[in-house]
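Example 5.3 — G protein-activated inward rectifier potassium channel 1
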Amino acid sequence: RRERQRFVDKNGRCNVQHGNLGGESSRYLSDLFTTLVDLKWRWNLLIFLLTYTVAWLVMASMWWGIAYLRGDLHRAHDDSYSPCVANVYNFPSAFLFFIETEATIGYGHRYITERCPEGIVLFLFQSLLGSIVDAFLIGCMFIKMSQPKKRAETLMFSRAAVVSQRDGKLCLMFRVGNLRNSHMVSAQIRCKLIKSRQTPEGEFLPLDQCELDVGFGTGADQLFLVSPLTICHEINSKSPFFCLSQRSLRSEQFEIVVILEGIVETTGMTCQARTSYTEDEVLWGHRFLPVMSLEDGFFRVDYSQFHATFEVPTPPYSAKE
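Solution (predicted structure tokens):
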């Protein structure tokens, strides 16, 4: 097999990196929430920990600063003196007071007195700032945990595509399956042919995208994915594979990108699974083995045969020939 660079990996990851953005990189900061959600988990956790740690230390320092400027630290043990915050006499105690206030623990040992207007203002600022930080970071973590990317891992595609006859017509076929009992609502499948070409005007298109018809007119692209299905692309005069034969397949260089979209039944979120087939992964004159069998009162799917194919008599000529 010839190994070459893919546009889309078998696991659906797109091999595209954006570089030399220049001043356009500032657009990521304008949409900071989406930028944080798109980061990897290790960076999300690091930002989560650093943000809370820095915020806690800064706010605790402000409480300690108020006590220091008022002279409360030196007279904290004087029963006749009314400090801004009772029982705050060093930085650790100021930090504990901040944590008790922020987490609404309220042990009752440290509290704000009525003779401290600056402490009341700082308390209001701390409450507003804490609510904003909690809503932003916890919301970001919740959205990241609830993303349906992992659901795509239980959607299977056959390792190879096949070319054989169906109903007397030459067809390109591949198989999809759902490993979970929960359904994909409104599942729809699309295929893109990515191939370089040159226009009559001499323009070279290195990654030209062409749509492959997998049943748009008949509704076959709308899937009821409760059992493995074989997706069929009829090679006719409108197909980009109209002139493809068994011999020319060996010298061609193309990539078929498959996109399966649907709504996750349990969460209601849209999920997308992707894969691709290069010319080396298209088997001419093969057909998929059956995986469905009737048991006692139910249908059984044997996923051990999901990727298996067998040879069938198929003319080596193109659909045009």
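Remark. The mean pLDDT is 86.
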